[in-house]
Structures are given as C-alpha cells and as structure tokens.
Structure prediction request, 234 residues.
Amino acid sequence: MAEVSYETRRSELKTYFDRTAKDNWVALTSNSPVSRIRETVRAGRQEMRETLLGWLPDDLQGARILDAGCGTGMLSIEAARRGADVVAIDISPELVAEAADRLPADINKQTITFHAGDMSDPSFGSFDYVVAMDSLIHYPLASITQLLEGFAPRTREGVLFTFAPKTPALTVMKAIGKLFPRNDRSPAIEPVSEQALISSINASLTHNFGYRVNRTKFVSTKFYKSQALELINS
Prediction:
C-alpha cells in the first residue's frame, strides 16, 4: 500500500480537528472531566510536554521558537514564560482561536504570535528551536524526514519532536481504535520504526545539515504512546 502524502494527511487532519474533534480536544487540553481513556492520554501528554520543555534552556530570553502544531498553546505559554519569542502554528483555525483565547494575563501578547496554517511554511523565517509535539505522529517516515529537512536549515540550535514508535502495543491500539465510538477516535497515526527514523536522520540531516540525535525518551500511559527525539546542531 502506498504511503499517504503529506498534503493528503494534512487535509484529513484539518477536517478532523475543525469538525469532528474540536470540542473533545479543547476538553482534553483543559481541566474539564474527560473519559478514562482520555485521562490517560492527558497524563501522557503532560509528561511529554514536560519532557520537551525540560530539554529547552530554562532561560529563553532572546530565543525564537516555532511551536509546530501548537494545538491550544500549552507548550507555547510555558516557553513564553521563560522569555522566548514564540511563533505558534497549527493546522486548525479553531484550535488556534482557542489558544489565543486561553492566553494568561501574565503573558505579554507580543511574545506569542498564533497562526493557522502549514507548520512547514518557510515564510515564518528562522528559529533557535523548533518543537513539534505530537504533530509529526500522523505522518509516515518519508514525510517526517521531509519536514525535518525543511526545519533544519532554518533552525540554529535544535529540533525537538515526537513520533509514534512502531511497537506491538501501538500496532494493536491502532487496530482496535477503529472499534471506539466515533467521538473517542484519534486521528490516524503512523507508527514508525525508531531504527529506520534514526537511519534516515543520519543519512539526511546529519550528512547535509550537521544535526545529530542527542536524547530520546519513550512516554507511555495506557492509551498514550509517543517517543521524543532531540536533534542538536553540532
């Protein structure tokens, strides 16, 4: 079976988040009561967000960060609190509007700019760090590599992202996910072999742009499986 293209999957995701899942996603990223399944997803996402933030410097004064797939802006807010200038972009205009509405009073509105659009758009310029939390998990290996190749020449320090690791548990979860009620379904994810991904990074980003894998961490709760990878510019 041919891999889904970046453009096709991006279109599917926009439809999913703007029409099918907007209310569920807003609830998931708040303190509102959610189902037991989504409670485990919420806990896993919190751990992952803390992991990625922990890989960024505590002091981000003067740093420019791209939050690629910002959702409702939770990571963007924490980066701005450290002094970063954040460009927060998401495919869903509905989620971007929610993120802007949630901006706390202690955050200078000029430190975060929200955009609905394509996270790979080069017109947003250069950054010190790119962070893509659970936004690349929907794409196959070729598209992930393509996205990273687009980020690398525009990023001075590091690219932090997550992918869906190809594990037996995740493969089973992807299969049984079709049995969940429609309002509990996740958008399509693409499990990727860690070895294949690192080989692709070494062949492309390390060879062409000087990036190398620095750290990795697998985060797992009952219904959340995601792996973080840190690429640094050496």
Q: What stands out?
A: Residues 178-184 have pLDDT under 50 and may be disordered. The domain at 6-233 is CATH 3.40.50.150 (Rossmann fold). The CA atoms of residues 120 and 147 lie 6 Å apart. Helices lie at 6-20, 22-28, 36-55, 74-81, 93-101, 141-151, 168-176, 194-209.
